[in-house]
Structures are given as structure tokens and as C-alpha cells.
Amino acid sequence: METTLSVRHLTKQFESTRALKGINLEVPAGRFVTLLGPSGCGKTTLLRAIAGITDPTAGEIWLAGRRIDALAPEKRNFGMVFQTYALFPHMNVEKNVAFGLEMRNVAKPEIAARVAAALELVGLDQHARRLPRQLSGGQQQRVALARAIVIEPDVLLFDEPLSNLDAKLRDSLREDLRTMQRKLGITSIYVTHDQSEAMALADEIVVMKDGEIVERGTPVDLYRRPRFRFTAEFLGLTNVIEADLSGSECRLPWGAVRKIENPAERASEGIAIRPEDIGIDAAKGEADGVVEQSMFLGASTHYWISAAGQELRVVTAGGQSDILATGQPVKLTLPPALHLLKTFEPAETPA
Amino acid sequence: MTPVRPTTLLLCLLPGVGYLLVFFGMPLVRVLVNSFSGRGPQTEVFTFTPWITLLTTPVYLDGLRFSVWLAVAPTALSLLIALPLSALMQANETSRRFFGSLYRIPLVVPGIVAAFLVLVMLDRGGMASRILTPLGIALPRLVRDEWGLGAIIASSWKNIPFMTLIISGSMAAINKDVLSAARTLGAGRFTILWRIQLPLAQPGITAAVLLTFISSLGSFVVPNLLGPSYPLPLSVHMYTEGFTKGNWPLVYAMGTLLSIVAVGVLLTYYAIIGSIGQSDAPKRAGA
């Protein structure tokens, strides 16, 4: 696939901290890429540098074979959606959406038609004359989305757009975002600290930490086969077990031996097992454990099990069986092949 | 919750409303009443004489026009400089620091000192003409000139920092993401100033205009030092009529007239701003 956006050796130095340490990132055309990481990892700085709102200290940004990092943000033709919505409070919905088209000197009748179409797309055609303050947060963010897509941007940039919304609204807007991006096929970069948001939306997740990219991959790859412990723990829940390695096998604390999926990875941080991959039963299993605590969440039940000196989290699908009582002895079963994790070592960067 | 008794409510309001009534309302009423009284021993007599004198004497009418000019011109000039300055201060940290320290200097210089500074600089034979004359540049008459340019310069110099302080404050309160959003949508810096920053900072701009206008309208020191001998603004007439001629009813009439003019000019200003605001903001009733 043709590469639309390319970030090369991008560095951003704030007064005493280095927010970006030589980022390299290729975003293929039409792809939805999510930058995921804890706060302070540099994901927003990277997004703002791509938008042109923040000047990078060094490095290059290319768009479809053209270098754009020296270009003013107003010349880049990127649409951006902000966490704070950033609507123009003194303009009504229609005027907000029309703003970008006016800046492009689009003819008045065409502006009206395109604004109407964009508002219909986000389901706000009935609210064209309202002021932003007369809308709910979710509606405001829909206006912001319409305002960003109406200019037919080369790239859509999202800076934690759902973080200011309550949980229910977040889920519904997330689905809409996904549908809309698929339909329009606009190359998108989406910043979030919420792993479920990243997994739900992205074609590809880029995990960041301390101004560097840890690793990148499809949501399934990163969830099932993370290279680094940081990724495994940031994306969902995971158990990390210390085990004795020998060749392509490992010995678990309770004596059982398992194959390693990825024996080539040395310098082990431990074995990763997702809580939903552990079988739990009152009678059958390979390891003895005791229920320390349980938490019923409706669709699933979470257990904290102690087994052979290890504390393990186990998740079972809800409604399948009765909840196991605290203090009850149980048997655990692990999957036949296990996944080895590495420690993420920050790359040495010249100061 | 128990309902608040009216007497309790009145007692609670007393510190604020009472203060306004005693120190603002009463003197104002007294000024108005005394502007309809006779001079000296005839203080108790009701008469229209002060008002007739004021509104039929060409010297005073010219004075009124000149007062308004000396208030409008520095306000407009200060606004013209304070607006871009405030916008520039939003651009980045460096410019904020640079302009931030620069514009504060006149804040700590009293009006009369500012007037003397202008006098020393711009009077004929002053520093500016001594520097410029060898270069073949002749300055127009700037001090005691008929347009009051020296007074306008001094007032502006004094007021620009106040205006910048207020306007940059209200510009700084604008969500930075809103400005970033405008830029990504294709707006350059000037468009952002005109379409986003000015309308959103408008309450602050109005406050700044109001303060500058009122303080310039009643200004006495600056036009007295730097203004022409004719016309004289009403503030200077008020001083001479009161302290050298003892015609206090006329002074009160002048004061009342200045206040009425101030209210009139401000109402006009609000009407103009309101009509500009309408173009972008929808009417509430239609929403």
C-alpha cells in the first residue's frame, strides 16, 4: 500500500525534557492508526507536530512524497478533532462547519451543500442553527468531526476526542467514528490512553512510552503476541509468571512443562498469560490454587487465585457456572504454548 | 431551606448598594440639582441659567466637542496599537515575555510625568526635533497644536498598557485548541485575530475602551499641559470656572453634560458592537 504520511527521526525537545526521541512512523493511505500510551509518553506532542501546531526540534514529516514539516498548519490540509471539542463558541453549528470551506474560498452554494451533507453524516442536520453551548458534549464533538471532514482532509488527526465524554456516549460515538472512517477512507491518526478505545478503532496500534515507540501491530497481534511486557500490561490484563527457561520449553512454578511460542526472544521478563486463557475448575486441572477474591461483572467474573506462590488473575465468561467462593480450592489449566515477554529498553539517543 | 426574610436580604445588600448610594448616587444627584441653581447667595434659587450659558456659548460648545475629540482619538489610537500587541503576546512564550515587560513601563508612570515626557520630547526645540532637524526632517507642531496631538499622544501612551493588560487577559482566556483548530482549518494569523480572537475577547475590549474613554474624557492634566489655548476641553473650563471665577453651578452643568455625553458615546459603541456581533452569532430567539 502507498504510504501517505511518513515521520522520520522526529525529535521534540522541551526546555529540559525530550518529549520525542527520534520517532519513525509510516502511515499507509486510508489506514486508521492509533497512538497509545500513558500520559507523558509523547503521543499528543507527536500528533501536534504532525498537525503543525507544535514545531519539532529535528526530523522530517512527509506527505505523499512532499516534505511538509516547514509548512504552516493552515497549509497542510489536515482535519483535527480535539479533546476539548475546540468549537468556535460565537458561531453556530453551521458556521463552525463552514469555516474551513470559507478559508478555501469555496463558492457559497457549494459551502451550503457540503455543510448540510457533513451535518447529516454526523446526525446533526436538525441543529444547524444552534450555538455550541446549546449542545451536549457528544453533539459538540460530532460538530467538531463534521468540521474536520467537510474540508476533505488528507489526514484526520484525533487528540483524545472521547476523553471528555461519559462512558455510554463514548461507546456510541466510538462506533460512529469507526463506521464513518471506514466509509470515508480518510487516513487517520488517533491519540488515546484508553486501550479498549485503541483496540476497537485501530487498524494498527502504535504503543508509545517516554517519547519512543515501543512496538506496533494490529490490535490482535499486540494483544496476543506482544514483544514487550510494557505492551502486554498496557493492553488489557495479563499475568506475568516467572519460569525456568530451557531451550524452547519452560518449567512452571508447579512443575508443569510448556512449549514456548517465541523461543527466539531471549532476555526474558517472564511468561505472559491472559486471564481468560487460564481454565479454572473445582476438580480438574494441573495446578492447585485457592480463590483469594472474586468479582462478578455480569458478562465475566474475575478471580484472584494464589497458586504455587504466584498471584494469578483468571477471567471466566459470566453465567457459565456458579461463582466460586473465596477460600475454595480450585484447579487451574494453562494453554499448551506460552508467550515470552521482553523488557523494553529505551534506545540510547544522543543528547 | 427557610426562605430569607426581606429585612435580612436588605441588610445583606446594604454594604454594596448602600455604598453606591452614599458615595456615588448622592453626589451625582447633588451635582445635577446644583446645576439648576443660582450663583453665590442665590444658591437656593431654581434657574436654567447655567445650562443656557453652557449650551449657547460657542467657547463651551467648542470645549465640549474638543473634550469628546480628546477622549475618542486616544481611545481609537490606543486600541489600534493594543489589539495587535495583545494578539502578538498570545503567539508564543518569547513574545509574551518580551512585550509583557515592555508594555508595563508606562503603567508605573503618573499622567503628569507622561505629559512632561511628551513635552520634553515633542515640543519645538525638544529632543525629537533636535535629532531630526539635522536629517532635514521637520516635525509638525505637536504640542499646544489645535488638534491636541500632543495630548492625544500622551493619553495614548498612558492608556495603551492598560488596554493591553485587559485585552491580552481576555485573549489569554480563549481555549488554545480553538485557535489551533482554526489554523488546521486554514486560517492565517490575521484571519484568526479578526474572526476568532476579536469576537471572543470582545467583553475585555469593551471594558478597555470604556475605561480609556472615560479617563480621557475627564482628563485635566494632559490637555492643560499639552493642549492648545483654544479650544479648551470642558475639564479645563470646569477648573477655571470653579476655582478662578467661582461659577459652581456652571461647573456642575458641565460635569452633568460630560457624563451624559459619556453615556451617549458608550451606548453608540454598544450599538455598533452589537450589530457586528449579530453577523456571526445567531439570534437567540431563532435557536
Describe the 3D structure.
The complex is a heterodimer of chains A (351) and B (287). Helices cover 24% and strands 34% of the residues of chain A. With 351 residues, chain A is an alpha+beta fold. In chain A, strand 12 and strand 13 form a beta hairpin. The radius of gyration of chain A is 24 Å and the shape is globular. The two termini of chain A are 35 Å apart. Chain B has 287 residues and is mostly helical. Helices cover 73% and strands 0% of the residues of chain B. In chain B, helix 1 packs across helix 13 (248-280) and helix 8 (176-184) runs antiparallel to helix 9 (189-200). At the A-B interface, strand 6, helix 2 and helix 4 of A face helix 8 and helix 9 of B.
What are the key terms here?
heterodimer; A: 351 residues; Rossmann fold; 6-stranded mixed β-sheet; B: 287 residues; mainly alpha; MetI-like fold; 13 helices
Topology readout:
The complex is a heterodimer of chains A (351) and B (287).
Chain A: E1 3-13, E2 18-28, E3 32-36, H1 43-51, E4 58-63, E5 66-67, E6 78-81, H2 93-103, H3 108-121, H4 137-149, E7 155-159, H5 167-184, E8 187-192, H6 195-201, E9 204-209, E10 212-217, H7 219-224, H8 229-234, E11 239-241, E12 244-246, E13 249-251, E14 257-260, E15 268-273, E16 279-281, E17 287-296, E18 300-307, E19 310-317, E20 329-333, E21 337-342
Parallel strand pairs in A: 3-8, 3-9, 6-7, 7-8, 14-21
Antiparallel strand pairs in A: 1-2, 1-4, 4-5, 9-10, 11-15, 12-13, 13-14, 15-21, 16-20, 17-18, 17-20, 18-19
Helix pairs in contact in A: 2-3, 2-4, 3-4
Chain B: H1 6-34, H2 49-56, H3 58-91, H4 93-102, H5 111-122, H6 127-132, H7 149-172, H8 176-184, H9 189-200, H10 202-217, H11 221-226, H12 234-244, H13 248-280
